Amino acid sequence: NLSEILDRVSNYLEKSNALQKKIKSSMYYPIGVVVLSIVITGFLVFNVVPTFKNIFATLGGTLPLPTQILIGLSDFLKKNIIIFIIFIAGIFILFKKYTSTPKGKKNLHKFLLKLPIFGELIRKIAIAKFSRTFATLIRSGVSIIKCLDIVAKTSGNKIIEEAVIESKKLIEEGQSISVPLQKTGVFPIMVIKMISIGEKSGKLEEMLSKIAQFYEEQTDSTITGLSSLIEPVIIVFLGVIIGGIVIALFLPIIKITQYVGIR
Q1: In whole angstroms, what is the distance from residue 225 CA to residue 242 CA?
Q2: How far apart are CA 197 and CA 210, in angstroms?
Q3: Cα 98 to Cα 103: distance, rounded to the nearest angstrom
Q4: 137 CB contacts (<8 Å, ≥6 apart)?
Q5: Which residue range is the domain that position 63 belongs to?
Q6: Chain centroid to CA 106: how far?
Q7: Residue 168: which CATH number?
Q8: Is the distance from CB of 197 to CB of 184 less than 8 angstroms?
Q9: Which long-range contacts (C-beta less than 8 Å, at least 24 apart) are formed by 43-47?
């Protein structure tokens, strides 16, 4: 009845929102650290380095290579900052325009699926959405063909969407659900086998729910693992960049100190 259908839809939306919140919350810290590192690096390059440059100019002598490179980079960025910003903005706009086209979006999603670690995470999220939506619709009495039309669009990935749509055409011709999905090469073999078992046993909705639960749990654990991995990586990266700048700035001072000590 209507109340049961609404309850199922509500449950589906809750799970979907929980997954989205988990993904978004895991990105806050890395993005914050990256932004902070850019701000600190910018401050060092545009304010601190020029100050040290003037000091080194008064001291004379040959600067160490790392210091020369840093000062050269600082001078280049200061002179060409507007061009640099326009260039970055131009690339971003072109990228957005390209990925807004069907071909561009497809190529982007194809590329994302091939990324190490993150590609598998994206696939897990898409399969979780696919399975959860499919199960909810079947439980609500929606026909298989109509279900496939809907779940294709909710997967969130163009490659998986096209795979489902292509499979739907073969299913309309009388094939089972699992065989066309397997031919696409997009879905893991475990998913295919569970769908096949569900079809044969008449418990497709139950199997899809199990697939969704499995991949939602997998997504949670992957995100948690990535979060704990990304944090030290970002800190090390930040330390290398800022530490490298500081070392490059103080190398001449260390050199002068050593020279004075020898004298």
Answers
A1: 26
A2: 12
A3: 8
A4: 146, 147, 150, 151
A5: 2-262
A6: 16
A7: 1.20.81.30
A8: no
A9: 44/242, 44/245, 44/246, 45/70, 45/73, 45/74, 45/77, 45/245, 46/74, 46/77, 46/78
Please tell me the predicted confidence (pLDDT) of residue 4: 62
Which bin fits 60, alpha (ψ -120 to 50), beta or left (φ > 0)? left
Q: Name 244's Cβ contacts closer than 8 Å, sequence gap at least 6.
A: 66
Residue 244 tokens, joined: 């490298």
| Domains contained in the chain, number | 1
Instruction: Name the token pair of 240.
Output: 């290398």
Q: Look-up: residue for tokens 């995470």? A: 121
243's tokens: 């530490």
Q: What is the reported pLDDT for 66?
A: 87
State in Å, rounded, how far the first CA of the chain is from the last one. Answer: 94
Q: How far apart are CA 102 and CA 119, in angstroms?
A: 20
Query: What element of type H or E holds 252?
Result: helix 204-262
CB distance 177 to 199 below 8 Å: yes
Question: What Rg value do the Cα atoms of the chain yield, rounded?
Answer: 27
- 3-class DSSP assignment, residue 131: helix
Residue 160 corresponds to which tokens in the numbers above?
A: 């998986």
Cα distances (angstroms) measured from residue 115 to each of 118, 120, 191, 234: 6, 8, 21, 19
Phi, psi of 186 (to 5 degrees): -90, -35
Backbone dihedral angles phi then psi of residue 255, each to the nearest 5 degrees: -65, -45
Query: pLDDT for 32-85, tens place per residue?
Result: 878 888 888 888 888 888 888 888 777 766 788 888 888 888 888 888 889 989
Spatial contact of 56 and 48, defined as CB atoms under 8 Å apart: no
Mind listing the pLDDT tens digit for each residue in 206-232? 999 999 889 988 888 888 888 777 778
